Amino acid sequence: EVRTISKRVSLIIKLRPYMIIKVLTLNNRKHGHAKCHLLAIDILTKKKFKHIIPSSHNCDLFHMSCINFQFIDIFENRFLFFFIVNGITKDNLCLSIDKACLCI
């Protein structure tokens, strides 16, 4: 439920990944639920976003993890070849070019 969210939690809001930076819960009024005001930053674009949602609603959390790797080569079909930390090689990551920035 939304009322259990704290800062630094990653959520999906309107199909976008956000990191919560501030949570404000307002008590319920005469008609309706208590509301949560979420201030979040889009993880991909770094833009701030305000979202108001009833505190009893469910939300989609996600877990991010970082993997260190060593880039080796790029193939003609835009697939990358790299080593992961434990020595495993991967070559199934496609490189797409979108608006003059590289998205992996």
From TrEMBL:
Residues 7-57 form the Translation initiation factor 5A-like N-terminal domain. It comes from Physcomitrium patens (Spreading-leaved earth moss). GO terms for biological process: positive regulation of translational elongation. This is Translation initiation factor 5A-like N-terminal domain-containing protein. One of its GO terms (molecular function) is ribosome binding. It comes from the Eukaryota.
